[in-house]
Amino acid sequence: MLYCHIALLLLLSTTQTQPKELLDRSVQEFQAGEYELAQKSLQQLIAAYPQTAPAHNLLGLVFMQQKKYTEADREFATALQLQPNSVSARVNRGNALVQLHQDEKARLEYMKALDLRPEDPVALAGVGLIHARAGSNSSAVPFLENAHRADPGNVQTTSALAAVYIDLARFHEAEDLIHVLV
Prior knowledge:
The chain has 182 residues and is an all-alpha fold.
């Protein structure tokens, strides 16, 4: 389950010129798939301006793409220390924790994100998928349904919801979702 919750970083407008330029360059490198360049740019930015939460968040996303989940979790945690109300950093940290098989910690991060933004489709899907993986399909349904409503084009959420419906013998609802996928 790797959703990328890319925040184009709300603090861009409030950072100084040099950090903003470095952050802009890092975002461009990330979007171009140049993860090693983005990592170097972000580490340079963080060395000079360690309090730049968006840089830590983006570096965490770079590490996610490189499958360095422990490092990603560390960067998201740092971003959250600097900016505790960042929904994107909370969701991203949840994603990293899922990859580290720390589902309960991930669920808590997703729930904190939902406290800040109740309709966040990635956080909703994350909680739903954790419940489904734990075998608690009835608990998964409301989260997956809300995630599907918020982002009906997300194939992973739609297929997970269909699978949960099948497990719960809700075959007609599953069939409707499967038709959406095909």
